[in-house]
Amino acid sequence: MQERRHVQRTRALKAGKILLNDRRSVIDCVVRNFSEAGACLQVASIVGVPPIFDLQIEGEAKPHACEAVWHAQNRIGIVFHSRPEEIRDGEPETAAALAPRREDGAGVAEPLRGELLSLRAALNEVSFGIVLLDAELRAQFINRAFRKMWRLPDDKADRKPAFVSLMYHGRDIRAYNIAEKDLPAYIAERVALVKVGDPAPMDIRQANGEVLRFQCTALPNGGRMLSYTYVTDIVRHADELEVLRNALDNVEQGITLLDTDLTVQFMNRAARKMWKVSDEIAERRPNYGELVNTTRITRASGVPAEKLDRYIAERITAARNGDPTPADLQLADGRTMRLQCAVLPNGGRMMTYSDVTDLVRSAAELQIIATTDSMTDLHNRRHFLELAEAEWQRFHRYQRPLSLLLFDLDRFKFINDTFGHDTGDRAIMHVAAIASHEKRPSDALARIGGDEFALLLPETDVQQAGVVADRLREKVAQSAFGDGADRMRITVSIGVAGATLSMSGVPVLLKAADEALYRAKFLGRNQVSVALPAPAHPADLAAE
């Protein structure tokens, strides 16, 4: 009868509370597999549960001093200690080795024997596979879930096979979704990774379509704990949130999750690295405003100091408003991160940061290609017309002076025909270099045809433009290009036109300058010709 009550007590589920932070914080739990030595605790999430804590079981007067010896998914294996002061103040004893010399626990110190049996029973209850290896990589314990998922007979499992033998058992039952010729190398690699205790998770695709996530943990006694978890239907598991956090922590895109008060709930590794935030700060769950302000200390942002206040205020406002408009952020290391805010169903925010440095760089390069003449590095015709249209609108709005120079090389066809197109190209680049040196930063210089150039002069009336044109003509005429006997001089003819309110737009201004250029050619080349003012429209005359 007493034995029956003990079994019922062991198997009963009890409500419990995990007490931490000097019993000021409480985490609800369900107590499973309870025994005098320990128990298995089921919690909503293992995040935040320390390795040493007190456990208050419903119906019992005093809490138990506990030490966590294993955890996985939403369960924690614990052992009870009778001297909690030694656990808190000294080095706690642990049952983490879990490697008795005999299956029945003989040879193990008597105080630990009950703990080991309890933990073995608990590990047999979990739904994921567990294999405990000794330092020689021989199995000391194989739980029920592993035996089932790999169809491992009990007699073979109880013989404490080597890990390599378990691997070849998987081959024998054709469990691997790997070509036969690749199996020896695959098994050798897996054994080598376990031998060095590589903790990196590995997904194993079985021939039946199931996917197992394998992970190796090095134990203090030199052994290994291997875990095998089904992830095929992982979204239906109770630990969905923790798995999602682990997944998000391994993506290259930075992700920060905020609650409705803009308090940080989660930052993945990429986001922490981008913000230069330590794990300790992230775990404190700062407010988003505090997080953005850390850039003052870390200097992670490439925003100049004088613009930092405005930048921080804009980022906080955008997050508070849930503004989904993408924003490109410049980091101090030169990278460009594209930030986007999404409002979550619970009212929180998800901030994503994608590295678009190459995209932005490519876009800038494409912009240069689309707007630049490849031979001279000046504006091309299309971009020049866009700039001229903008200046024309400013001229009409504010009635500020605006002038245009059109110029080309004299006898360019003769140069090409006599000396070759390479010399002609060098002549074009020579004139382009002189014009670039002579222009102001506000001027727009472009190559708009083979040997034809345009120079737009804002805030310059036609008389001033004539002076600029004559100075440019003289500079070209006085310079030479080429080497030695190949050195030669060239000249340019220039047409000048000033914008007037009677003109209908940029095309009319271009036509006036072109006619003036034609007149300069007619007058003997190496000349500057200024276009005559256009006659007023009849409507303007009537108004007068």
Briefly say what this structure is.
With 544 residues, the chain is of the alpha+beta class.
Which properties best describe this structure?
Beta-Lactamase, alpha+beta, disordered N terminus, 544 residues, 6-stranded antiparallel β-barrel, Thrombin, subunit H, disordered C terminus, 20 helices, 4 domains, 5-stranded antiparallel β-sheet, elongated
Main β-sheet description: 6 strands, antiparallel, barrel
Mean pLDDT: 82
Straight-line distance between termini: 122 Å
Number of separate strands: 23
The tally of domains stands at: 4
Shape: elongated
CATH class of the largest domain: Alpha Beta
Could you say which structural class the secondary elements and strand pairing correspond to? alpha+beta
Give the helix tally. 20
CATH 2nd-level architecture of the largest domain:
2-Layer Sandwich
- CATH superfamily annotation of the largest domain: Reverse transcriptase/Diguanylate cyclase domain
Question: How are the strands of the largest sheet arranged?
Answer: 1-2-3-6-5-4
Percent strand: 15-25%
Low-confidence stretches: 1-10, 83-111, 235-239, 538-544
The percent of residues in helical segments reads 25-40%
The Rg value, from CA coordinates, equals 40 Å
